[in-house]
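Study this chain:
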Amino acid sequence: MSSSRIFRVLLPGLALMCCCSSLVSAGGFDEVEVHGFATQGFIKTSANSFFGDSEDGSFEFTELGVNASMDATEDIRLSGQLLSRRAGEMYSGTPSIDFALADFTVRSTENDNFGIMLGRIKNPLGLFNETRDVAFTRPGFLVPQVVYYDKVRNLILSADGLAARMSTFSELANVSLYLAAGQPLTDENVEYVYLGSGYEGDFSPDGLSYIGRVLVEKPDGTVRASLSIASTSMKFERGASDPIGNGGVSLVYGIGSLQCVVNDWTFTSEYMQEPIEWRGFVGSPLAGKEATGESYYFQAAWQARTDVEVMIRYGEGYADRADHSGVRIEQATGGAIPAHTQYSKIATAGIRWDVSSQLMVRAEYQRHNGTLILSNRENPVPAATVPDWDMFALSVSYRF
């Protein structure tokens, strides 16, 4: 087993062992907080596949999670979560460690706070990445897909490593800084996105990822602004039957975010850029390729009643800001990769009803132009996808 894989296995395990040993020393589970959630979704599309055979209506979207946390000492908080996520061909529902960490508070006063975290840590990218799997906290049926692509969810979700968090508090603003280094998590979905298909060879992290975020917010929470960035590299070691050579992929994922609350309205906008560089891959169109992904969305949510929220959103995403139309890649591939696979323009309207503090129902309609957000694992023939399509989604969520 490679050193990077050992690192990824041992670090979250170490955090869980710390949690278990602290429970034993504490003499039981009396001080442990346990919470959980469950979401079942239904998706119907007019064309293309999204989380299963959605043209015929798909129930292949299920999220189950249970988390626990406790204060091991006055300065050390331990927490972890197990997650099962089923989403069509992309995620099978196999339980996994979503996060498992020890959070050490080094300093805490009325004016500032400083701490260090160790383990598998959720990456605070943008406004929603940390809590994207908890339906009650995300701004729709899913987080905005043009910025938080579900098809590469695991790559940006979390990392096994070390992080430092720093905050200062004043009457004018609260300022938080987050810096981290760790091993990212890759899976077959990531391989399909950055290599175009699944291969026999091994596609894995190449060294450490580096993550940072600056968040500024008013003390009353009515204004939040952040800039977050992650840098990571991956390497591909070809298998005996693979038609491409060894290679590497390097990318930087940056998001600028702004959210304002005005009376019963919440306005949110985020902008993302993702410069990507491919190295090696002899025998493949990926050899020497460079591109800069670009995406943004605008969203308005109205709290119509204490238990009802209405949301509208418009977003656009592009595989390469230098080829918004996708014409270049269509010409270069002789039409094998159609232009519409290189962009997504999505108009969304949705409603959320909190039946109780524990039960929520959500319904959403999306109008799509382009198929960039689709997984080519679920849609293996790009030329067979339809550029203009509709999606209706319904979900029921419970938490305790």
Notes: The domain at 98-399 is CATH 2.40.160 (Porin). The first strand starts at residue 33 and ends at 45. The two ends are 39 Å apart (CA to CA). The chain has one domain: 98-399.
